[in-house]
From TrEMBL:
This is TetR/AcrR family transcriptional regulator. Residues 34-53 bind DNA. One of its GO terms (molecular function) is transcription cis-regulatory region binding. Keywords: DNA-binding, Transcription, Transcription regulation. Residues 11-71 form the HTH tetR-type domain. It comes from the Bacteria. It comes from Gordonibacter massiliensis.
Length: 195
């Protein structure tokens, strides 16, 4: 009997392996899944899985990067919209944060035992957002005919400073967002001044 091989586009195959791995990580936990398990579930040979990802750690890093890109896609579109004021951008960003549960790997990164993975994701999101928020803050200052005192420090503080509050599971998300929004507004207004 002859085995029929299905030839797929390499990127399609890579994404299938990635999605399969993340599904298994959600079901069993990261530590309980091997590359062999991933290959079997993706219906590929272990050698092919290793062809795309040298190790489970590199596969996870690729999943983290893909999820960070997916999470920030809408945010970056908002930040890069030259028609919106900074206040409008902040309104849109905070509304978008409340609607993240439908994303592809949400269940894994937000699972109870995956706090370390969630923190890695948080930093990856910040790294992706930082240059766009910096550009938006500078554009707002230009729009107002003003200057931003220490824009890099301001944007670093806003971007990374909210991580502790966002990671606090004792407070409901709407309350966290309200507090962050208030602090961001105060910080922004205190650092953008007439030229």
């Amino acid at each position: 009997m002859q085995v029929v091989r299905t030839v797929k586009d390499p990127e399609e195959r890579r994404l299938e392996i990635l999605d399969t791995a993340m599904r298994l990580f959600v079901e069993r936990g990261y530590d309980a899944v091997s590359m062999r398990d991933i290959a079997r579930a993706a219906d590929v040979t272990p050698g092919l899985a290793y062809h795309y990802f040298d190790s489970k750690q590199k596969l996870f890093a690729a999943a983290l990067e893909a999820y960070a890109a997916e999470c920030t896609e809408g945010f970056l579109h908002i930040l890069d919209d030259g028609q919106l004021t900074l206040a409008d951008k902040m309104d849109a960003l905070f509304a978008a944060v409340a609607d993240e549960e439908g994303l592809r790997y949400h269940d894994f990164f937000h699972a109870e035992g995956n706090r370390a993975f969630h923190e890695q994701l948080s930093f990856a999101l910040c790294e992706r957002m930082y240059p766009h928020l910096l550009a938006a803050v500078k554009a707002e200052a230009r729009r107002r005919g003003a200057v931003v005192r220490d824009p890099e420090v301001l944007v670093n503080f806003i971007t990374y400073g909210q991580l502790g509050l966002m990671s606090d599971r004792s407070m409901p998300d709407p309350r966290k967002l309200e507090l962050i929004r208030n602090y961001v507004e105060v910080l922004m207004e205190s650092q953008i001044e007439p030229a």
